[in-house]
Specification:
mainly alpha
């Protein structure tokens, strides 16, 4: 009988750890959705979406060069702001400590989530800033077309959400 109790206890610990890990992961993903990013593959889709925004604008070679320069600078900026391996390991260790602690410290979890969300938010702000700079490079006619492309993309995304 004691062997079954021990197995049941171990199973409960493993299950609760899996549930806590899933909830922490879900919180991280929720933070991503609020800032506009979902997963790595979706981030690539975001850049693809930006390319779609410029379709039909008949950009000049000078505009294309300027846009590429701005995008390259943004990419380098984002690369420089990435967490180092040590920072990622520290974050992982902090999360593990919170998950495996005898008493759950909700305020500490919220603090860690808030820091992560702020970093994502800073990246999103940087990207929008670059998009604004690109928009300013466009002629008035191109700006009108850009707005139409943006509205069309938004309505497509809304329809995707209805599925």
């Amino acid at each position: 009988m004691k062997a079954n109790t021990l197995k049941a206890g171990l199973l409960a610990i493993v299950a609760s750890t899996a549930l806590l890990t899933a909830s922490v992961y879900a919180e991280q993903q929720t933070g991503c959705q609020e800032s506009g990013y979902h997963m790595k593959s979706d981030r690539m889709g975001h850049h693809e979406g930006m390319k779609k925004m410029f379709r039909g604008l008949d950009l000049t070679d000078e505009q294309r060069t300027e846009i590429k320069t701005l995008m390259k600078a943004q990419k380098e900026s984002m690369r420089d702001s990435r967490p180092t391996s040590d920072e990622r390991q520290t974050h992982k260790a902090e999360m593990l400590a919170l998950i495996t602690a005898d008493s759950f410290d909700e305020s500490q979890v919220k603090l860690l989530m808030q820091k992560k969300h702020e970093k994502r938010q800073d990246k999103a702000v940087g990207m929008l800033k670059v998009q604004n700079e690109i928009y300013k490079l466009l002629t008035p006619e191109q700006q009108v077309q850009f707005k139409e492309n943006f509205e069309n993309a938004r309505s497509r995304n809304e329809r995707k959400g209805d599925r």
